[in-house]
Amino acid sequence: MDEQSQVVAVPAPKNEADLFPMYPMKGRTPVFPDDVKETHRRTKTPLLQYVLSARPLAFLTAPLIYLCLVAFLMLDVFVSLYQAICFPIYGIPKARRSDYLIFDRGALLYLNALERFNCINCSYANGLIAYVMEIVGRTEQHWCPLKHAQKLITQHSRYRSFLPYGDARMYRERIDGVREEFEDLRP
Prior knowledge:
By secondary structure, the protein is mostly helical. The protein has helices spanning 34-42, 47-52, 56-90, 113-143, 168-180; strands at residues 25-26, 29-30. It has five helices and two strands, in the order ββααααα.
């Protein structure tokens, strides 16, 4: 293996500080020192080499992966329209799309054009799912703020304020209050 194609293991984050960027930010863009930019440029795999080294099955699955982008774009349009029309009617604060869709990987100079496109695609899909989850969570808080009987693998940000499963009295006493509990989201 030559120096450019070595794989480096990245350790899992040990604490919360490890989750944040190790470079200063200018707005939403990391600012890399010149020596880091040069290292990034030197370690970029040329596009042709990258494509030629791909497994044959990757060429067969790539169209399916990229086709998902169409579904995500449609979901984005519909859920954004839904929120724009319905949330003001019910007094639900809107989720800011820009808080969920983050495209900072494009600043990484060690990614070739295809790697960069793939990163943008994944950033969009994951950010969109988080955005949709937040919108659905806020909707659920208004219409059905009840916890489930079973433990959820993933919970949206509003779930913690939901009412206990099976407690009919508490539901009737507190439903209106829980529907209005968006103070943490209001300016």
